[in-house]
Amino acid sequence: MKAHATLATSAATRVMCYGGFRLSALPSVGIPLKQINDALASLPHNTSPTQADWKKLSTDWRKDLDLRILQLQKLRNTLDDCIGCGCLSIERCRLRNPLDQLADEGPGAHYLWIKEVTE
């Protein structure tokens, strides 16, 4: 537990040192402090990040954010439909997942999850 607190403190300190608002918004959209800390650790120490540094970091974070946005949109748009979880409580479940065939793929909402973003 103490190591986690130290990591969070370290990341928070570097967030403040490396450009304030740009990075301080990341945890509020679900990018974990460890991921932020790891990204910042890849930057040269004792210098300010360059435009190229920010571009690389933002490209990596953009992919993650794009996937999160798509996942939230799909969740919002399918809350009232069969998501392939196996409950078979909605009439359409019998059409989309007859006899819970998706159970062979393991637990979860199989029709809900987006595996990767394709461009």
From TrEMBL:
Domain of life, source organism: Bacteria
Pfam families: MerR-DNA-bind (PF09278)
TM ranges: none
InterPro entries: DNA-bd_dom_put_sf, Tscrpt_reg_MerR_DNA-bd
Domain Transcription regulator MerR DNA binding: 29-82
Protein name in UniProt: Transcription regulator MerR DNA binding domain-containing protein
Organism of origin: Cellvibrio zantedeschiae
